[in-house]
Amino acid sequence: MTAGLLGSEIPLADAHDLALVDLDGVAYQGHLPIAHAAESLDEARRRGLRLMFVTNNASREPEDVASQLSSLSIPTEPDEVMTAAQACAQVLTTRLASGARVLVIGGRGLVTAVREAGFEVVSSADDAPEAVAQGFAPELGWSDLAEAAYAVAGGAWFVASNRDMSLPTARGFAPGNGALVGAVVAATGVQPASAGKPSPAMYDMAVARRAAQRPLVIGDRLDTDLAGARAGGYPGLHVLTGVSSARDAVLAEPGLRPHYIGADLRALLGPHPRPFSEGGWWRCGERAARVVDGTLELDGSELSGIDGVRAACAAAWAAADAGAALHPSGVPDLGA
């Protein structure tokens, strides 16, 4: 699949049969709704697009996630939720026999997923676990991380639900599971296997569950959601309502680039014009951009609108792929 932006003359909701939707930064922000999310997903469903909510959060049960979404006017059933806890438990089955002891460092969602996968959950390194499964939970403390370190240092297989360094909340960004996993890595020198995005494992599981033929990944983070889309060979839509900005997309390496970009989930409901090269400029709609001497130049004093972001991405990526320098200082803070 091309490393550049794709185009679609019809709305993405009509072009795909399943949307793999991230949660934090896409469907909601912490416990707050995101503008246009509920009504856009409702309209996409009305057009026949099925939804699976795929999250790196491993602390909660699918039932809890579905309940939160439903409370935000996004009606959701538990089987429409795929969590990193479920993916972590699936990874454990690739090496451990049923009934193996697993030290779970995380929330209820991870405990349930590991048990449902057929393993015995233990709470101490003294229980001789064959593996440590670590996922985020806000109540985790030093003693939990210490137990994980003791077990990993003793030879237990180390598996993390995900390695997100930050977690978006209503108050800002807080340390994520990757930061907590980093404490165990620092203590043991052992790097864990990771089940969550950017591994495409959860996407693969969700696509198989729904027998989808034309899936679309939707996310806000280039380093997890969209990197996972690239890794799994799925087209990915980057919405600018969460962690990664338009400027981040312009500067993205090939493995992190989205295939489509939109301001918010309304991007599901309209066409996506594909940028094209003309006269040294990359154009999209009424906007254009080019890279000259390592600086991104715009066809006006200000880049505005999502077509401008698309043109900027096309110009920057083409220059970078051709070996031309693009200095981060030469890329403005782009509005959309």
Key features of this structure:
alpha/beta; Rossmann fold; 3 domains; 336 residues; six-stranded parallel beta sheet
Overview of this protein structure:
- There is one protein chain.
- With 336 residues, the chain is of the alpha/beta class.
- The protein is built from 11 helices and 19 strands.
- The protein has 3 domains: 117 residues, Rossmann fold (3-Layer(aba) Sandwich); 110 residues, Rossmann fold; 55 residues, no CATH class.
- The two termini are 26 Å apart.
Write a short abstract of this structure.
The chain is α/β, with parallel strands linked by helices and about 325 residues long. The chain contains 11 helices and 19 strands.
What is the count of β-strands? 19
- Cα distance, first to last residue? 26 Å
Helical proportion? 25-40%
Unreliable segments (pLDDT under 50, ≥5 consecutive)? none
CATH class of the largest domain: Alpha Beta
Q: State the domain count.
A: 3
Sheet with most strands: 6 strands, parallel
| CA-based gyration radius | 21 Å
Strand order, sheet with most strands:
5-4-1-13-14-15
Assigned CATH architecture of the largest domain: 3-Layer(aba) Sandwich
Helix and strand succession? HEEEHEHEHEHEEHEEEHEHEHEHEEEEEH
Classify the fold: give the CATH topology of the largest domain: Rossmann fold
Give the averaged pLDDT, no decimals.
93
> Which word captures the global form?
globular
CATH superfamily of the largest domain: HAD superfamily/HAD-like
Structural class: alpha/beta
Number of helical elements: 11
Percent in strands: 15-25%
Organism: Isoptericola halotolerans
InterPro entries: GNAT-like, HAD-like_sf, HAD-SF_hydro_IIA, HAD_sf
Protein name: HAD superfamily hydrolase (TIGR01450 family)
Keywords: Hydrolase
